[in-house]
């Protein structure tokens, strides 16, 4: 593949403090970038740009690394609009929650499920996401979880086995048997289709002890681990994530100061999900607590039918700034380099030499516009070479 020069970039966010203004985002002004064979091969001032076979004129607009959305549940069928409307009306309502989605997903033909998932992934892509993690967890049978992981694997290498999402109806009253199924036969069958294993470890979901059994089995099977923790209560999920060396613990709405110390020591990323809090009317998490404690932060959409049916990544970024206390630069870093770290990836999440050329070209000259302006089309193009 021949090299491509992208030039006339008003602001190029590289996420490399060695470049440009030396800030967290490593912003190069009046920049140019060379892409060779899918990777960034050169970054610098446009006055010094080399000549290349292909040339893209950014027309004075800003370029940022594509977002790395490290937490989604894109493979599902059906809707939970009734549950959402009831919650917003303040009504007590039990429409089945996750189990309602499990029923709809089990019943969905493969072709239909593939199209639904592809459409959601496309919407994320159009809003700037160039790397996406996708979890299973809406079938909860051995064959069904494999089916969801195969569909996820058609769209990303960041596939996550979430057999421990909830206990399915046929195992009600027999949760120990279900935990054993997940940690043994289901895990063994799903491991070849997954990079990660995840557990919903929270009050009313799986306990710390159950999560430990499943996640340590997943580690023995060669999977990386991550978990949903401390979304609904102080559940010990973050502490467990630190203890086991998980790549990420996600939600973290109720973490304590001790949890933060443990996360900082283990290097586990705290993935914050601002839209899940917005659409459940949970007060926003104070992201500053995490940064002040030395914890790496990522943000993600948590796209799922129950609590965050969000395929607008820019909204997620905007909430991380306006509701969670991050600066624009910190939030952009968290949704790019932070997401990459949560997925243990160094090749994405930035635009330094040697990283993948996954980038989004804004409709204006300043990266701050992504948060400052809530316009319907913030990006002119989203490119993955
Ligand atoms: Zn989730």
Topology, please?
Blueprint: E1 4-13, E2 27-36, E3 39-45, E4 54-65, E5 67-69, H1 81-89, H2 98-107, H3 110-126, E6 129-135, H4 142-153, E7 158-164, H5 175-190, E8 196-201, H6 208-220, E9 224-229, H7 237-244, E10 248-251, H8 257-266, E11 269-272, H9 274-278, H10 287-292, E12 297-299, H11 313-322, H12 328-342, E13 358-362, H13 369-372, E14 379-384
Parallel strand pairs: 1-4, 5-6, 6-7, 7-8, 8-9, 9-10, 10-11, 11-12
Antiparallel strand pairs: 1-2, 2-3, 4-13, 13-14
Bound molecules: zinc ion.
Zinc ion (ZN) binds next to loops.
Task: Describe the 3D structure.
It is a single chain. This protein is of the alpha/beta class. The protein is 35% helix and 23% strand. The protein has 13 helices and 14 strands. It has helices at residues 81-89, 98-107, 110-126, 142-153, 175-190, 208-220, 237-244, 257-266, 274-278, 287-292, 313-322, 328-342, 369-372; strands spanning 4-13, 27-36, 39-45, 54-65, 67-69, 129-135, 158-164, 196-201, 224-229, 248-251, 269-272, 297-299, 358-362, 379-384. It has an eight-stranded parallel beta sheet. Strands 3-2-1-4-13-14 form a six-stranded mixed beta sheet, with no helix packed on it. Helix 7 (237-244) links the parallel strand 9 (224-229) and strand 10 (248-251). Helix 4 (142-153) packs across helix 5 (175-190), helix 5 runs parallel beside helix 6 (208-220) and helix 11 crosses helix 12. The radius of gyration is 21 Å and the shape is globular. The mean pLDDT is 96.
